[in-house]
Amino acid sequence: WPMPSASEGMSRTGNHQMIRSLLSIPSFWQTEARDTIPVHPESDSTLQEGDIVFRRKRSAINCDSSCFWPKSSDGLVKVPVNVSTEFCKLLVYRTWIAEAMQEFTTLTCVQFINRTTETNYISVVPGESCWSHFGKIGGMQQVGLMKTGCMSKGAIQHEMNHALGFLHEQSRSDRDNYVKIMWEYVIAGEQGNFGKVNSNNLGLPYDYSSVMHYGANDFSNTSGKATIVPIPDPSVPIGQREGLSNLDVAKINKLYNCCSNVLHKPNDTFSSVNYPSSYPDNSNCLWLIRIPQHQIFLQFDAFDLQPSPDCTSDYIRVYDGSSRNSSVLLDKLCGMGSLPSLVASRNVMLVEFVSDEATAATGFQASYSQGEDSASFTELGDISNFCLANIHVQN
């Protein structure tokens, strides 16, 4: 969840380093990323709530829209990223980071792109702790990932979410209605990790399952004693790091005015923005249908998109999986008329809708339902583009 404001953190550049892949494939030239960072990464900054960098000279409640990453004319929030060679050279690290970033790309309009010459960007580096600056600070800003403590999809997403402008869920202004802080069990000197702020909660519910929520026993001074107890039901699990929750996704999309959605009911309907009125220009919308089990059957109940040669202007595309790297069930389609039903091979399907700045039509309305299971498949992302400023083939 986002604060209504943020503070800046200092950034710095590091030295260049060339390393050779362990598999004798092309080496990676990584610019402006240090191999290690201290726990408190900036000399004029302080680490708050365990993993957030605020610059001391600015209050954390004096930020405006400049703290958030800008939206492009195509409706996407493009966040340039490069990744340290220390992560790029090992497949397991590349996979974890790729899967974490891919989920943002699939479920929101936030797109992590390969940094080329952009001035403002994120540099993912190894650290002695897990930490991030809060929001966009300007220039190069680091996200530190400890190899032995941060390398899971949810933990990486937690830090990247800080960089997008979100703080910890249990710090939001209404948290006392949902959790009780057991101060007597908090490690001496760590009470600051459990502060509460005057937050902008975006009109969305408190989320026990948020990837931004602390675990029940975090910073406890006594084994087995919780520092955070959900109320009224203390058995509610908190502190998961499996991945973005549905409300995490909703909050990102609302903060950045995205038109992406996660659909998780066994049967549901959805439509383009403003349907049956004309959809807006420069849309880039995604619907991830992710039901508990069985195949997905998709039917377009109404379809009216601006026609163009090869559907280069406005179009629908449907993927048999959870990302744009999945197999295509329906390639770029536009115009008007009825469409056949589409069937996914498993329990996930991605629907993409793109419009340009020219004439718009009424859009579409679709419905889906669950069917029987079929063979499943596994997708594997890659972060090669984030790792490579240049590729140098070793002779």
Q: How would you explain this protein's 3D organization?
A:
- Helix content is 12%, strand content 27%.
- The protein has 395 residues and is α+β, with helices and mostly antiparallel strands.
- The strands form 5 sheets. It has a 7-stranded mixed sheet with strand order 3-4-8-9-7-5-6. A 5-stranded mixed sheet has the order 12-14-20-16-17. Strands 13, 15, 18, 19 and 21 form a 5-stranded antiparallel sheet that branches.
- Helix 2 crosses helix 3 (153-164).
- The longest helix is centred in the first third of the chain and has 17 residues, at 91-107.
Using brief descriptors, characterize the structure shown.
single chain; 395 residues; alpha+beta; seven-stranded mixed beta sheet; five-stranded mixed beta sheet; 5 helices; 12% helix; globular; disordered N terminus; signal; metalloendopeptidase activity
